[in-house]
Design goal:
This protein is of the alpha/beta class. The protein has 2 domains: 168 residues, Rossmann fold; 68 residues, no CATH class. The chain is built from 9 helices and 10 strands. It has a 6-stranded mixed β-sheet with strand order 6-7-8-3-9-10, with helices on both faces. It has a 4-stranded antiparallel β-sheet with strand order 2-1-4-5. The radius of gyration is 18 Å and the shape is globular. It starts with 10 loop residues before the first strand and ends with a helix.
């Protein structure tokens, strides 16, 4: 397993003009996102701003109405042109998602959850997938839970299994959808520490989070969204410390004063 090369100059992922409507609600209104290799991009904003829809679109869990997405500068997938399954798989195969609600298979053990993707999707051997899964579980302090079922784990342990499950796919891009929002406060730190270590190793990540202090330390780039548009983006030192837009200032003031 190796992270993406943070020294490379070309963007890993380029998204342009992303639009998505659910019924009469236009959730995304021409979103542009660029993710550099080894970069951590934090998406912040109020509920309903479109952050999770962006993340799910990057992983092919939602199909945008229009816009384009391209990995490594290859010919972009044009969503308005009704991309083929092969084109969508070319995006899905490059990333892995860590979900807010863990999304572990309840009837499978920790180890079975982790090797499901490598074996069933990537067609790797059970022995190889198992060996790598055990190394990853040991890394997050859960090697002794390999035969446990999700209901036997705390929320923090389940989320660490979710991270291991994503890492087991050896993705170019890790996607985190508010990975701590379903956790009790005392369990948040363990999960954030794992993400912090991954960032330090040079993994490329897009992170939807309400943990602003964490984002200020781990993110290279922060995107503030509201109403389906990007209001402001830039380094944490600008967006989180010295924002220029009134809407960003209002959001940060409300969140930090809670």
């Amino acid at each position: 397993m190796s992270p993406t090369d943070p020294g490379a100059s070309a963007p890993l992922l380029t998204v342009r003009g992303l639009r998505k409507t659910f019924g009469s609600n236009e959730v995304l209104k021409s979103i542009d996102v660029t993710v550099g290799r080894g970069q951590v991009v934090a998406l912040i904003g109020p509920s309903g701003s479109g952050k999770t829809t962006v993340l799910r679109s990057l992983n092919g869990l939602e199909i945008p109405d229009s816009g384009t997405a391209s990995f490594d500068g290859y010919a972009p997938v044009d969503f308005a042109a009704k991309p083929s399954r092969k084109q969508l798989d070319s995006l899905r195969d490059r990333s892995a998602m860590v979900f807010q609600q863990f999304n572990l298979f309840p009837h499978r053990t920790v180890l079975q959850n982790v090797i499901e993707g490598p074996v069933q999707v990537q067609k790797r051997s059970v022995s190889d997938a198992t060996a790598e899964a055990l190394v990853l579980l040991d890394r997050v302090g859960l090697a002794d839970k390999r035969d446990a079922y999700p209901f036997e784990l705390s929320g923090g342990q389940q989320q660490r299994v979710g991270i291991v499950r994503a890492l087991a796919l050896k993705p170019d891009l890790l996607l985190f959808d508010e990975p701590t929002s379903s956790l009790d406060p005392e369990l948040v730190g363990d999960v954030l520490e794992v993400i912090r270590e991954l960032a330090a190793e040079g993994w490329t990540m897009v992170l939807v989070t309400h943990e602003l202090q964490f984002a200020s330390h781990v993110a290279d780039h922060v995107v503030f969204m509201d109403g389906g548009v990007v209001v402001e983006s830039g380094p944490p030192s600008e967006v989180l410390v010295n924002p220029t837009h009134d809407r960003t200032k209002q959001f940060l003031h409300r969140l930090l004063d809670r």
